[in-house]
Amino acid sequence: MAIETVAVIGAGTMGHALALVHALGGCRVALHDNAAQVLARAPELIRAALATLQEAETLTRAKAEAAVARITPVDTLEEALTIADLVVEAVVEKPEIKTLVFAAIDRHARRGAILASNTSYLDVFPLIPDARQARAAVAHWYTPPYIVDLVDLAPGPQTDPAVIEALRTLYTGFGKMPVVFDHLVPGYIANRLQAALNLECLRMIDAGWATAQDIDRSIRHGLVDRLAVLGHMKKMDYTGLEMVRNGIAGRSYQPPENTGETPVLDRLIAAGRTGVRAGAGFYDYGDRPAEELFHDRDLRLLRLKAQLQGNEGEDH
Q1: Where in the sequence is the domain holding 202, given as residue range(s)?
Q2: What is the percent of the chain with per-residue pLDDT over 70, rounded to a whole number?
Q3: One domain, residues 132 and 240
Q4: Are residues 10 and 146 in the same domain?
Q5: Which among 167, 240, 286, 311 is placed 20 to 30 Å from 177, CA to CA?
């Protein structure tokens, strides 16, 4: 099943970026958001992302202009859905809002359209109308998706296997890296690993064992280079599985219990230190605009990605 036209519903942080991903892949994209100010800002964010890709010399000006030409912001959901082969849902992670959006999609989308949700952690399938279940799937991306290649693909209980195959084929053709699940696994792989890392890092800070800076130094200078080159499971092979087994058998490490409470985050948030957009989180970012900080991050990601291209084909 060929996918040539895409409707992206939600034009915020992920939505505008997913519109760009599909446009760079050659699809015609209709982008919609029910918040007029969010939709109005999306073209500016898309052009900024394209400028960063050009600055890193990973995209030509001609291809950037062609991608922009393929994206059309539209004011109504019905207009966005009229001819879409694929509907990408990228609205806020609230079940009640997603339910309303899925119902509207059911009213206006073509019967044969694929519905792909970018949900990070919700089981969206109970929220999707019965008539759409066979053509519904999860296609979960990581920010910024025009740089990060991983996309998690998961079917619902009634999903036609051809839908997952169509999405896998589409995104592989984009140069992305789909990981296909047999069923919805809460958190997928990367988010589950990040959740475990978050718990351990916050535990060490709360216990006074380490600072945020200590943790980042340990990750950047002790783990990242090997993980980037090998991944984690292959890194265990290089360590030696007997040594890994002995380390586990020694029980010197006990995972922290997830109590649902995060004292260190509570303190930072109460102080208004909510992250880059607030100018501070675990770190102080001074008066530098958030857009400048994200631009610098994206450039560094692109340069690292270029250096790691030699690892392609080694995922076996």
Answers
A1: 190-285
A2: 97
A3: no
A4: yes
A5: 240
Residues in Cβ contact with 168 at an 8 Å cutoff, skipping those fewer than 6 apart: 153, 178, 180
Going by their DSSP bridges, the two strands 86-89 and 114-117 should be labelled as: parallel
Quote the crossing angle between the two packed helices 36-55 and 61-70, to the nearest 10°.
Answer: 160
Beta-strand pair 136-141/177-180:
unpaired
CA 315/CA 48 separation, integer angstroms: 32
Beta-strand relationship, 136-141 and 150-155: antiparallel
Residue 309: pLDDT band by 50, 70, 90 thresholds?
confident
What residue type is assigned to position 84 of the chain?
A
CATH code for position 51: 3.40.50.720
pLDDT value for 308? 85
CB of 146 closer than 8 Å to CB of 21: yes
CA-only gyration radius of the chain, Å = 21
Residues 52/295, Cβ–Cβ less than 8 Å: yes
pTM: 0.93
Per-residue model confidence as pLDDT tens digits over 11-31: 999 999 999 999 999 999 999
Say how far apart CA 269 and CA 162 lie, in whole Å.
45
Residue 5 host element (H or E): strand 5-9
- Helices 61-70 and 15-24: crossing angle in degrees, nearest 10, is 120
CB atoms within 10 A of CB 129: 14
pLDDT bin (cut points 50, 70, 90) of residue 1 is low
Is residue 9 within 8 A of residue 101, CB to CB? The reply is yes
Q: Pick left, alpha or beta for residue 251 (phi over 0 → left; psi -120 to 50 → alpha; otherwise beta).
A: left
Amino acid type, 200:
E
Asked if residue 246 is part of any domain, the answer here is: yes
CB 205 within 8 A of CB 215: yes
* Residue 74: closest CA among 33, 43, 44: 33
Measured from the Cβ of residue 282, the count of other Cβ atoms closer than 10 Å reads 16
Euclidean distance between CA atoms 38 and 232, whole angstroms? 39
